[in-house]
Design brief:
- The complex is a heterodimer.
- Chain A has a single domain, classed as Response regulator (Rossmann fold, 3-Layer(aba) Sandwich), CATH 3.40.50.2300.
- Chain A has five helices and five strands.
- Chain A has helices spanning about 10-25, 35-45, 60-70, 90-95, 110-125; strands spanning about 5-10, 30, 50-55, 80-85, 100-105.
- Chain A has a five-stranded parallel beta sheet, with helices on both faces.
- The termini of chain A are close together.
- In chain B, about 50% of the residues lie in helices and about 20% in strands.
- Chain B has four domains: about 5-65, no CATH class; about 70-165, Beta-Lactamase, CATH 3.30.450.20; about 170-250, Helix Hairpins; about 255-410, 2-Layer Sandwich (Heat Shock Protein 90).
- In chain B, the strands form three sheets. Chain B has a five-stranded antiparallel beta sheet. In chain B, strands 7-9-10-12-11 form a five-stranded mixed beta sheet, covered by helices on one side. In chain B, strands 6-8 form a two-stranded antiparallel ribbon.
- Chain B is elongated, with a radius of gyration of 44 Å.
- Chain B is an alpha+beta fold.
- The longest helix of chain B is centred in the middle third of the chain and has 51 residues, at about 165-215.
- Classes of the chains: A alpha/beta, B alpha+beta.
- The interface of A and B includes residues 11, 21 and 85 of A.
Chain lengths: ~130, ~425
């Protein structure tokens, strides 16, 4: 069974590009375009992994991550922050919010894919 | 009988028998009053002695206070003339204080500033507030005084004049510093924001072009890879530009640690392994056995070396690229020199002198010819100075270049700490 990924991204081009590329890599991709939608969708759909943009409408990725990590139902879902912010302080903020990994945009797909595979393997050892 | 009364009796009453009845009672009463007067006088004298001692003491205390106060204290009489002056001569009035007594207060000021002074004094007399007086000293600098006036009645006043030039100056410096810090914070915020704004569309360009190159029509592959390559180049330039700006804004933190030389060199080599192999260029390393480790900011050093080795591979078609490391002192400081030696096209002398300057100063032909390396080298120079090192180049046009990075062997952790781009070293 392919892993289900919730992609949270408000930029249409990036959302389209990433979801297509991830689909081609064999993931089942769902999309949320703001922070609140991300939280609702994650609670409802229980994805295997969340790729979380940080600059998002309504509530930002940090806040969405905090809410998901605070909820027992989604606390165990690994979250990879995808951000165009490139400062150490932002990185620390992501980790403080509860993100499991951090990737700076623009991203080579290879690197986040490796991180995703590692996180998925930890979660459901085969 | 009181001694004085005895003398008076002897002088004025002569042979009279003072023990006789009418005299005896009278003289005893007089004697009693003499004794009482004597006691009273003694009391008054003692009291006066005490208070005059207290006065002297209070006066001495006041003098001591005036000595330590940074103020010039002028007693001005009802006619506006200075009756006395005490305390410190100020830098503005110092030279003029010699003959100050007998002058008027406004005489202390240059002619053209007297009207302003009169107005300030009038307002101070009316309101009792502190007056700030700004005037030009004899050497042309701005001097600032605060003057307080205390009324003595009958038109006399005590003017207490304090030189606050230094206070004012440090206040101005503090404000300027705060302004600069606010501007720097605004710059940092702008940079962080710009970084985000620029990377988001670039992300889409890089992602789509890579996806299409992998999976799109074969005849478009080369063009798509060109778009992708240009996007990556743009990203490199963007990162270098943002890094330079962050260093300039003081946002880059230097993190010092023990660093293993071979590991640093290996990191630099592996960054170019693919591109060197594609050209069939060997990348050699020669590390002096005496230099195994140093204490520095590893990420900065690696970033500089990766940029230099990357350039070396880029501009070399035949021969080899070599990284050599050995110990070298600079002045009285132990250090290490990393030489990045290539057998490439080399640099013309006029390019050598411009090489490490800011991108703003790199002329168009340089940018065209060297594919924007000016930006990378300007960043290298800044990264090197962050870790207290230097970067130099020797080159013979047509016969290769050697870029040398000297870094101190033991870099101390700097006191200043700030934000740093994670993207600096890992987005190429």
């Amino acid at each position: 069974m392919s892993a289900r990924v919730l992609l949270v991204e408000d930029n249409e081009a990036n959302a389209d590009m990433l979801s297509r590329r991830l689909t081609r890599q064999g993931f089942e991709v769902r999309l949320a375009t703001d922070g609140l939608q991300a939280v609702e969708q994650a609670l409802r759909e229980r994805p295997d992994l969340i790729l979380m943009d940080i600059s998002l409408p309504k509530i930002d990725g940090w806040e969405a991550t905090r809410r998901l990590k605070a909820d027992a139902a989604t606390a165990g879902v690994p979250i990879v922050a995808l951000t165009a912010h490139a400062m150490v302080a932002d990185r620390q903020k992501c980790l403080d919010a509860g993100c499991d990994e951090f990737e700076t945009k623009p991203i080579d797909l290879k690197r986040p894919l490796e991180k995703m595979q590692t996180l998925l393997a930890i979660r459901s050892p085969r | 009988m009181h001694a004085l009364l005895q003398r008076q009796v002897a002088r004025h009453l002569g042979g009279i028998d003072v023990t006789a009845a009418p005299w005896a009672a009278f003289l005893e009463a007089v004697d009693q009053s003499y004794i009482e007067a004597e006691i009273d006088r003694n009391l008054v004298e003692t009291a006066m002695e005490i208070s005059s001692h207290e006065l002297l003491q209070a006066n001495a205390e006041l003098r001591a206070l005036i000595q330590v106060f940074p103020d010039l204290i002028l007693h001005v009489d009802g006619d506006g003339q200075i009756a006395s002056s005490r305390g410190r001569a100020t830098r503005a009035f110092g030279a003029r204080l010699g003959g100050i007594v007998g002058q008027t207060l406004r005489d202390l000021f240059p002619e053209d500033e007297r009207a302003g002074f009169d107005a300030a004094i009038a307002s101070a007399r009316a309101s009792g507030d502190v007056v700030t007086l700004e005037h030009t000293s004899h050497d042309g600098g701005l001097v600032v005084h605060e003057m307080r006036l205390a009324s003595l009645g009958e038109g006399g006043v005590v003017a207490i004049v304090r030189d606050v030039t230094d206070t004012r100056r440090s206040e101005e410096l503090r404000l300027a510093k705060e302004g600069a810090e606010a501007a720097s914070r605004a710059k940092s915020a702008f940079l962080a924001n710009m970084s985000h704004e620029l990377r988001t569309p670039l992300n889409a360009i890089l992602g789509y072009s890579e996806m299409l190159a992998e999976e799109g029509p074969a005849d478009m592959r080369e063009d798509l890879m060109r778009i992708h390559g240009s996007g990556r180049h743009l990203l490199q330039l963007l990162n270098a530009m943002l890094d330079i700006a962050r260093i300039e804004a003081g946002m880059v933190r230097v993190e010092v640690d023990g660093v293993d030389v071979a590991g640093v060199v290996e990191d630099a080599v592996s960054a170019v392994r693919t591109s060197a192999a594609a050209k069939g260029l060997p990348v050699r390393t020669a590390i002096d056995p005496g230099v195994q480790w140093l204490q520095t900011d590893r990420a900065k050093l690696v970033q500089v070396l990766v940029a230099l080795v990357g350039n070396a591979v880029k501009f070399t078609e035949q021969g080899a690229v070599e990284i050599a490391v050995h110990a070298e002192r600079s002045g009285d400081r132990d250090g290490l020199r990393f030489d990045v030696i290539d057998t490439g096209i080399g640099l013309a002398p006029d390019h050598l002198s411009r090489l490490f300057r800011d991108f703003a100063q790199v002329d168009e032909s340089t940018t065209r010819r060297f594919g924007g390396t000016g930006l990378g080298l300007a960043l290298c120079r800044r990264l090197c100075s962050l870790i207290e090192g230097q970067v130099r180049v020797r080159s013979t046009f047509g016969a290769g270049s050697t870029f040398s990075v000297w870094v101190p062997r033991l870099l101390e952790t700097p006191a200043a700490a700030a934000d740093m781009a994670v993207a600096a070293g890992d987005q190429r």
